[in-house]
Amino acid sequence: MRDDTRILVVDDSEINLEIESALIENRWSIPCDTAVNGDTAIKLCNERIYSLILMDYLMPGMNGIQTAENIKTTKWNFKTPIVALTGSDDEDTAAELREKGFDDVLIKPIDEQAIAEVFNKYIGVSVVENRGGSEHTGAVLGSLHEVPGLDVTGGLKNVAGNRDSYVKSLRILKDKLPEANERISSSLLKSDMDRARLYLHSMKSTLANVGFAAASARAGALEKAVLGKDVDYYDNNIGAFTDILDNISRSLDKVFSASGDAADFSRAGNEDEFLKSITVILEEFDNFRFMEAKEMAITLSEVDFGKRLNKVVINILGALDAFDYEKAATIIKNTLAESE
Fold first, then answer.
1. Tens digits of per-residue pLDDT, 190-220?
2. What is the DSSP letter of 111?
3. Has domain 135-262 been given CATH number 2.60.120?
4. Which CATH number fits domain 7-122: 1.10.10.10, 3.40.50.10190, 3.40.50.2300, 2.60.40.1120?
């Protein structure tokens, strides 16, 4: 493997990005950059050369196929192999993606042997030893084994056994599930079935990645119902699915609350530091530096500013995940105004 080997992972799910990059970095010690949408991926591809790009093909906004086409026109990555990531395991989808310009296809959740073959084929790497995780996350895992429907062993396998990355992914899931439920319900009220399919597809792969196989299968069945315009199946089962998401959220919240929420933060912060940081994020918005703003918000989420301000960070990240920069800016402005 060359010293400058680097992989770009593109996925609209923050949880999938955490899991996929953790697997690569822990099993192969290959540094990764991540992008939550096509625009960010293209920006990164205009800035540096990547050895390989792994990309979710079904994303809101610019989808994976359109993003790949744009990357093929960049100065630095027009020859870089691009591998599609998909939660669909049928051969027709894989064949279609190859016809659309992808060099290869991987099924999510990513099988370690399958990705090893891709790495050997395109960049030539060998597996290295895992890195386990901290004592605290090891203790949390004991409680996670009690969460109904959660296969902790399988979820850990997807991150090459790294406990820190796995617990972080489940924490993100806990915080994102209420918003995901709201998005699904909202798309139904608006009869926007294309967007409902995107949310269900993302939820299917996310749940599978962390170890909620049965819930993932339900999301997949609902996605197929949308594609097949099976209105009766969808109407009869969507309520039960959103109830499952609510139950998962409550179960995870119980685990993390009992383990001591602040213990998973990297450090404690204060309100002055928080206000200065969100002011800088707002300035990044003004300069159209949205990726940098997102990175700063993620860094803030790792600091314990107290329950009220931590919730503000979660709301900012939620808006950014939805590419609603106006909403994120409004949250920041309102927070700054309340502090005066």
1. 778 888 888 899 899 999 999 999 999 999 9
2. P
3. no
4. 3.40.50.2300
